[in-house]
Design brief:
It is a single-pass membrane protein. The protein is α+β, with helices and mostly antiparallel strands. The protein is 58% helix and 19% strand. It has two domains: 40 residues; 100 residues, Band 7 domain (Tetrahydropterin Synthase, Chain A), CATH 3.30.479. The longest helix has 33 residues. The chain is elongated, with a radius of gyration of 28 Å.
């Protein structure tokens, strides 16, 4: 009779261990084979995709806060074609944002990678606020001359 009691205690433990292994196996399968990899999720778009999703600003020449002058141009990448179409219609607002941001900056603040990254991030955030059909993925500085 004692053996029957011992066997009945072992079955639930065995069942729980088996269930845990099945759950871990299923989770492992999902993680390794079903989830998109970081490289797929962050893959750079092709040149054709970029062409369909980017808008180029006109060349802007304006003065900076320290009376220096800047000539600058950007290419703005959107997340979908509707956002691109809307952005093209709002380019005058984008140019206004660019001039407004630059007017408060000094030439030293735009030197080096950190300065350009800061400006691109600011423009990304402010231009995204304008859009109703999507958002800005990235702002590229394509031309910059400070005098």
């Amino acid at each position: 009779m004692e053996q029957e009691v011992k066997k009945s205690k072992g079955k639930p433990i065995l069942f729980i261990m088996l269930a845990v292994l099945v759950i871990l196996g299923g989770t492992g399968y999902y993680v390794f084979f079903q989830m998109p990899s970081k490289t797929e999720a962050n893959a750079e778009p092709s040149a054709e995709e970029l062409e369909k999703l980017t808008v180029e600003t006109e060349e802007i020449t304006t003065n900076l806060a320290d009376q220096s002058f800047i000539k600058i141009k950007f290419r703005i990448e959107t997340d979908n074609e509707d956002a691109k179409a809307e952005l093209e219609k709002r380019l005058f607002q984008v140019n206004n944002i660019i001039i407004y941001e630059l007017s408060g900056m000094k030439a030293g603040g735009l030197q080096g990678q950190k300065g350009i990254n800061r400006l691109e991030d600011t423009l990304n955030h402010k231009v995204t606020k304008l859009l109703q059909e999507g958002k800005v993925k990235r702002v590229y500085t394509t031309e910059k001359i400070i005098q």
